[in-house]
Amino acid sequence: MDLSRFLSPITEALAARHYGDQPLELYEPIRYSMSMGGKRIRPLLTLLGAYLYSDHWQQLALNPALAVEVFHNFTLLHDDIMDQAPLRRGQPTVHVKWNPNVAILSGDVMLVRAYELLFDIEPALLREALQRFSQTAAEVCEGQQLDMNFETRPQVSIAEYLDMIRLKTAVLLGFALELGARLGGASAEDADHLRRFGVDIGLAFQLRDDLLDVYGDAATFGKRVGGDIVSDKKTYLLLTALERANEAQRVTLGHWLGLNSSETAEAKVRAVTAIYDQLQIRPRTEALINDYFQDALAHLDLVQAPAERKALLRGLALQLMERES
Amino acid sequence: MDLSRFLSPITEALAARHYGDQPLELYEPIRYSMSMGGKRIRPLLTLLGAYLYSDHWQQLALNPALAVEVFHNFTLLHDDIMDQAPLRRGQPTVHVKWNPNVAILSGDVMLVRAYELLFDIEPALLREALQRFSQTAAEVCEGQQLDMNFETRPQVSIAEYLDMIRLKTAVLLGFALELGARLGGASAEDADHLRRFGVDIGLAFQLRDDLLDVYGDAATFGKRVGGDIVSDKKTYLLLTALERANEAQRVTLGHWLGLNSSETAEAKVRAVTAIYDQLQIRPRTEALINDYFQDALAHLDLVQAPAERKALLRGLALQLMERES
């Protein structure tokens, strides 16, 4: 499926975008962050949402689509400080390349610039769009805080984990699509179905990410396989394994969790993956991904828009489900 | 002058404000920051700006006034991380009481909540208010970045310093007043005079702060006298002294700058203050403060609003000039 017709205006507008000049320490990191690339899924969803209802999708929704992408990159920038991540898409993170203070402050300005891009909405829809954006932004922060809390909490339930990834990842995909739909002229009901389609796809997307960390191809995935296992990250895979493990498996998992020397990292990944295999964690996770995917499609079915335009969204969702990286 | 009629609704609305519930680590720091107190000068300016033109100042401008105060407290929260400040108004800062990650993220949500308070503006004025707010917010961040840059730069000119405090402190006071005026019904011309009144007062306010650090009464000022001298902060006082010093004074200043042991702190404050006295830095700074104050009043004179209402703004400005803390 060729989405370049929608992707090109996004890429071009991002390349041409001016965030500010002086001081350089404030604006260079923004240009750097925005030029790192990425799949631009969120702005694509916004444009495809508008295209469902209008041929003027570019005029109606391009700047708001960029707002969502700038906001997303703001969250990555601040999350990378909090997670002390050295790399993002293979390049040094802003807090490493510059310093944490520069990363905090240039992130703050990115959030402001995201709002500014959103002001390019017709008056009748402006306030609602801004309110929904703000609500979503706060939820994304709530998700990040929960993610950090879970690192040090001994027990996390699967329901809590799913709620965390809903907030941290899925609600923004839902909002991106809902926003575009409203700008294109969707009814409130259609916009809500599309939002829920986006949230379901977002949940499936994050679970796919958890899965790729363990079962992805290192070369294609672009990260070290088993990184989540090495860092004891409480993913859907680990939480499901802990729930389903028998006594012996629980002891083995308990032995490896918290064992964080680099010499034992490979053995740890092998041992934990072996337990995942015994407990059929992969097919179980794939089943849940598929559940969310089917729920998403059910919402899309109810949307009152031309089938051939809805097919683009279905195609993008399928791409995200089948991606190897 | 009694401003309690305007201050009370601000205090009450801030006390009643709901920022969010869960996770606690995200929302407790916001409540903590907003309950620390402060003079609430910025929201006062917004309400007084609206009152110049309308008896419905509370209905028209209260939530936008709170937006400015929440934004201001967001900048304090993030600045305190960057400056590694242990205390704010005598209480532990958020990054100390919780941790830097909590401070980054709860600050992010405060910025979002500030925007939300600004959505309570009639449609005809909403976009302009949001754009001016965003422009001001970016300028405040630029000022903070310049302030950090100046710490490690060997040379800073007085003009550069004044531009930095204009961005970091003064533009927000100008915006607070301009916003209120527009919401009350001011013409673009009046709103601009009021903005410039606010910027001038903001510059005078910050210079007064520089002065109080050296010449304030420790008990009244609430900070240790000479803190800026001890930390080699490039204030208007120091930069003016460096510019006007003779060879011997320059050598003495050069000797003390960079000498940062706690044992010599008192002697350093005495020695640098002695040079300030020789060079008449205090009356020179007071003269510049007065220049800005007179410029501010000249702008206020040109504003087409009832004299008795303008008198409240003049009175507030005078209070800020004469404050001892």
From TrEMBL, chains A, B:
InterPro entries: Isoprenoid_synthase_dom_sf (IPR008949), Polyprenyl_synt (IPR000092), Polyprenyl_synt_CS (IPR033749). GO terms for molecular function: metal ion binding; prenyltransferase activity. GO terms for biological process: isoprenoid biosynthetic process. Keywords: Magnesium, Metal-binding, Transferase. It comes from the Bacteria. Its cofactor is Mg(2+). Pfam families: polyprenyl_synt (PF00348). The keyword Magnesium applies. Coiled coil: none annotated. Belongs to the FPP/GGPP synthase family. This is Polyprenyl synthetase family protein. It comes from Hymenobacter edaphi.
